[in-house]
Design goal:
The protein is an alpha+beta fold. The protein has two helices and six strands; from the N terminus they run E-E-H-E-E-E-E-H. Strands 1, 2, 3, 4, 5 and 6 form a six-stranded antiparallel sheet that branches. The longest helix is centred in the last third of the chain and has 19 residues.
Length: 123
């Protein structure tokens, strides 16, 4: 499984993979413990998010669709668990339109905050 792709030039995408332009870059999620534990924590967070549907759940890869409340636009969110390092690459991109007014970045940062909070509470 390959990591998610870098973003195109439109501002409605963020990604942590190498080759992503600085204005689209977000840091990957880092974790302690096993990839399986990190994935379980991430799945708990994603399943608790409204208008969020997990469409692909593989050993080291998750694809999620997030639907906006008002206009019902769908964003694609990907998580790729690195094979050798304790990190999860992320990509969140709008399927339609040009600007998302920072929505994809806010989503990833919200997930990051909850992911790290859950990690601390499990120690």
């Amino acid at each position: 499984m390959r990591p998610p792709l870098p973003c195109s030039s439109s501002p409605n995408c963020v990604s942590s993979v190498e080759g992503t332009a600085q204005e689209h870059f977000v840091s990957p999620l880092r974790y302690r413990g096993t990839a399986e534990e990190a994935k379980a924590r991430l799945l708990t967070i994603l399943n608790a998010m409204s208008r969020t549907r997990i469409t692909t759940d593989e050993t080291r890869y998750l694809h999620v669709e997030c639907t906006s409340l008002v206009f019902r636009f769908v964003d694609d969110v990907e998580f790729w668990f690195h094979e050798r390092e304790p990190l999860i690459h992320v990509r969140s991109a709008s399927r339609m339109g040009y600007s998302d007014f920072g929505g994809n970045r806010r989503r990833i940062e919200h997930i990051r905050t909850r992911f790290y909070s859950a990690s601390i509470s499990n120690m």
